[in-house]
Design goal:
Length: about 120
């Protein structure tokens, strides 16, 4: 009886491992295909306000067409040369352009700074 039970358990374990390995083999490794950026909901920018990266939402499109928000801000690079910043604060009213890079991708975001 014990030998039969042990044999059944070994068969079940073997089948389970086989199914798990096949399932893993079918998954493709996802990679970023594009990024987008937008101003966070409710965010406004005025002359004299300090630049705050938390006011921008960056999303990555993956190879399976899913879209995920990039939450690791350390992985983002900001080119602020189009923002007219002085001492880290917006110095001019009008449309400005922020370039944001993630992985090998860069996107441009235009937004208004109010007087």
């Amino acid at each position: 009886m014990k030998k039969a039970l042990l044999t059944v358990l070994v068969l079940v374990l073997t089948l389970t491992m086989g199914v798990a390995l096949v399932a893993c083999a079918d998954q493709e490794e996802l990679h970023v295909t594009a990024i987008t950026a937008e101003v966070a909901e409710g965010a406004t920018f005025k002359v004299g306000d300090a630049f705050d990266a938390e006011l921008f939402v960056v999303k990555a499109t993956l190879s399976d067409d899913s879209v995920k928000e990039v939450t690791t801000t350390a992985a983002l690079a900001y080119d602020k040369s189009g923002l007219s910043l002085v001492d880290g604060k917006y110095s001019k009213a009008g449309e400005v352009t922020l370039k944001i890079s993630f992985s090998d991708f860069t996107t441009e975001l235009k937004f208004e700074v109010e007087a």
